[in-house]
Specification:
This protein has about 120 residues and is an all-beta fold. The protein contains no helices and eleven strands. Helix content is about 0%, strand content about 55%. Strands 2, 4, 5, 6, 9, 10 and 11 form a seven-stranded mixed sheet that branches.
């Protein structure tokens, strides 16, 4: 059973960089054919896909967030990290990490609330 756990600050000031880490257990982030995603849900809105890093370390980002987004990984810790720069209050959301493979989002973290406020 794969488990994902998000961690990071719950409060970020405007213009700063949001940084979250997803720690994966029960499976390796280098296992073939799995993609490791970041997804968010702003208050009162639907889910918004942010981007992913693949089992081989390639990345792909949502076009609307690409200029501010970076996803990286630490294979020795079995973790992957989201950095979102120049945040505004519109980046306030619950942020999730999730594993995608074989056409499904198979496993999700429980989500972490991030509020952007001065």
């Amino acid at each position: 059973q794969v488990q994902l756990q998000e961690s990071g600050p719950g409060l970020v000031k405007p213009s700063q960089t949001l940084s979250l880490t997803c720690t994966v257990s029960g499976g390796s982030i280098t296992t073939n054919d799995y993609y490791w995603n970041w997804i968010r849900q702003p208050p009162g809105k639907g889910l918004e896909w942010i981007g992913y890093i693949t089992y081989s370390g390639s990345t792909y980002y949502s076009p609307s967030l690409k200029s501010r987004t970076s996803i990286s990984r630490d294979t020795s810790k079995n973790q992957f990290t989201l950095q979102l720069s120049s945040v505004t209050p519109e980046d306030t959301a619950v942020y999730y990490c999730a594993q995608y493979g074989y056409k499904y989002f198979n496993y999700w973290g429980q989500g972490t609330q991030v509020t952007v406020s001065s």
